[in-house]
């Protein structure tokens, strides 16, 4: 089971190594947009939308990695002061009854929109924009799957660790 958890971790680690370059591209494109607009008086809707697409891709594809490295949002007003055993119980409960059902619901409810977007190859959000809204919408199920895979890896480790309730 540990090998399965490691393999699932590897998916998000590998993806994170590639996705981090999206931030570099995003900064460079935004810099070019600013220079183009204020120095040369040139503007491009497609270039502006590309920053939006890259931003969406970065955050949606890095969701599983964020969970892996434990940098996700956590309300630890009480959690920080609990024993390791109590933290493990809360983590197991959270993964099984909050995170997984939320991801499944998001996947279920977003799928018709994603499917329809692919069916018509949904075009740009703005006139002159990038003709690939269907690709951006595809980030939603990708996010759900990556977070659920990472959640399974974490659950495997939580349930195999000593002192599990």
Automatic annotation (TrEMBL):
Tripartite ATP-independent periplasmic transporters DctQ component domain ranges (all copies): 26-160
Keywords: Cell inner membrane, Cell membrane, Membrane, Transmembrane, Transmembrane helix, Transport
Localisation: Cell inner membrane
Segments passing through the bilayer: 21-40, 52-69, 90-111
InterPro entries: DctQ, TRAP_DctQ
Recorded topology in the membrane: Multi-pass membrane protein
Single Gene Ontology MF annotation: transmembrane transporter activity
Keyword Lipid metabolism annotated: no
GO cellular component, one term: plasma membrane
Family statement: Belongs to the TRAP transporter small permease family.
Function, as annotated: Part of the tripartite ATP-independent periplasmic (TRAP) transport system.
Subunit structure: The complex comprises the extracytoplasmic solute receptor protein and the two transmembrane proteins.
Protein name, as recorded: TRAP transporter small permease protein
High-level lineage: Bacteria, Pseudomonadati, Pseudomonadota, Alphaproteobacteria, Rhodobacterales
